Amino acid sequence: PRRLPPAAQLAVEHFSIVFGMDGGQSDEQAALGVAWAPGRVNLIGEHTDYNEGFVLPLAVDRVVAFAGRRRSDGHVRLWSRQFQELAEIELEGLPATFAAQVERLPTWARYVLAVLSELKAAGLALQGFNAVLHGDVPLGGGMSSSAALEVATAWAASLFSDGHFAIGKGAATSTTLTPLEVARLCQRAEHLASGVRCGILDQAASCLGRPGHALLLDCRSLDFRYLPFESEGVALLVADTQVRRELAASAYNERRQQCEEAVRLLAALLQAEAEPGERAVKPQITALRDVTPELFRRYASRLPEVLRRRAGYVVAENARVLEVAHLLEQGEVEAVGPYLWQTHAGLRDEYEVSCLELDVLVEIARRVEGVLGARMMGGGFGGCTINLVRNTAIEQLTEAILSEYPRQTGRQTSVEVCRAAGGPGALYLPA
Ligand code: GAF
What we know:
- This protein is of the alpha+beta class.
- Helix content is 40%, strand content 21%.
- The chain is built from 12 helices and 14 strands.
- It has helices at 6-19, 98-102, 107-121, 145-160, 179-194, 201-208, 248-273, 293-299, 305-329, 337-349, 356-366, 394-409; strands at residues 33-44, 54-70, 75-80, 85-90, 129-135, 166-167, 176-177, 213-218, 224-228, 234-240, 371-376, 384-390, 414-418, 425-428.
- Strands 1, 2, 3, 4, 5, 8, 9 and 14 form an 8-stranded mixed β-sheet that branches. It has a 4-stranded antiparallel β-sheet with strand order 11-12-10-13. Strands 6-7 form a two-stranded parallel sheet.
- The model has no long low-confidence stretch (mean pLDDT 94).
- Bound molecules: 2-deoxy-2-fluoro-alpha-D-galactopyranose (GAF).
- Keywords: ATP-binding, Carbohydrate metabolism, Cytoplasm, Galactose metabolism, Kinase, Magnesium, Metal-binding, Nucleotide-binding, Transferase.
């Protein structure tokens, strides 16, 4: 039998404890099913996704999972093992009843509701189910626990729909979504549930993960390619600041707005300089993705100071992603390190989404020999750092972080090695 991810196995073991051996009003004929989706790390390409640029994430061996049984009605009953909390959702009436239902749900269940609501809005036929949820993606820690929850919800809804809705690689039909369409749907769900106008990075990374590979995604065309991420000698370590800041959501939306404003100004400058006859043929700028480093250098001094720094970071980061992708194609994983330090500097000084605790973790890493590169990861203002480390330095870095970080910040931390793992899964267990 297939080995389940540990968090999925735990959810399975918990199901009969929570819902009783008969699954508590589940369809008695229905088998026990399990669905899961991974969190991600992002090697490079931070705050580039909503600028229609490039990202290079890896799905990791941490997942959010549902274990449950289909019901014969339209009722969804969920027990979160992590929050020790029950939530109930009515499929009937969605998406119209979204606003009425979301009010009385705990935060974690709002993401589930939002995905179910979007699936129904897309015209898919869903069926109720009882399920236990569990995960080992650090919550709110910059490893996309919410995207993993959204994507796992879609896979669970498909599993329990009893063949009425499938997720498959082939062409989309009225009853089939491709993994990439699921990613877009889950991105909309994230907007609905959290109010954060996120890009597609997290949901795409979760939907499209492949073991031993990073995913190079063009966030404009949504074309993607897998690049080998394997090197005998190096590992990825994730260190958690244990900081979760409320302001992250509003600061994120503000950065996005600033990028949009920079695009408007740059497009206007370019238009103004074009000869009348040239206007129609001059390349148009509709996102920072269209601004090359050369073009940016030409116009940067005419942007307001804050917008210049924000846009300057994004333009440079986009170029870095493509250079790192090229290195991975050549199998030169170790050469990626310097780019991570550069990204951190940009996020700290120009994009201004780092914080003291993230900077402390990166500076600790900088002093350990054998650390090739480190940076803050994800939206910022807390969460995790990602560290590219020679295997021979894993222990030393772990020890340095565990001893120095609490001393410098008064906080606890945890350090974990992550591996590039596969995407979501869903199956019924044999009776
Ligand atoms: C968060 C968002 F959800 C992503 O879309 C992305 O913008 C990331 O921050 C920054 O790269 O994880």
